[in-house]
Design the sequence.
C-alpha cells in the first residue's frame, strides 16, 4: 500500500504499476476509464477495493449554463452511460 492509502498492483496487461481501484473498475466496466472519469471509494477507505465499495464518477462539466447546453450535455451523458434510456428512433 502506498503512503496515500491507495493499493498499487502490477497490471500484467498494461505492463505497469496501477492503482488497484481503477483497475478493478475498468475490469467491471470492460473498458479503460475515460480521462473525465475517476473512481470513488464509498466508505472513504482507499484500501477497500471491493466493487461494491467503488463508484464511477464523471468529472466533466458542461461549459455553459444555458438550457440548450445542459440538454446537450444530458444527451451526451445518456449516450455514454445509459444509451438504453434514449429512444431508438430519435436523432440524438
Sequence:
Amino acid at each position: 500500500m502506498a503512503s496515500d492509502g491507495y493499493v498499487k498492483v502490477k497490471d500484467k496487461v498494461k505492463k505497469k504499476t496501477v492503482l488497484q481501484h481503477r483497475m478493478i473498475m475498468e475490469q467491471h466496466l470492460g473498458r479503460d476509464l475515460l480521462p473525465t472519469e475517476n473512481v470513488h471509494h464509498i466508505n472513504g477507505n482507499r484500501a477497500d477495493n471491493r466493487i461494491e465499495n467503488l463508484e464511477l464518477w464523471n468529472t466533466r462539466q458542461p461549459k455553459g449554463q444555458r438550457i440548450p447546453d445542459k440538454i446537450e450535455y444530458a444527451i451526451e451523458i445518456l449516450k455514454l452511460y445509459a444509451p438504453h434510456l434514449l429512444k431508438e428512433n430519435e436523432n440524438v
Q: What stands out?
A: The helical segments are 20-29, 67-81. Residues 67-81 form the longest helix (15 residues).
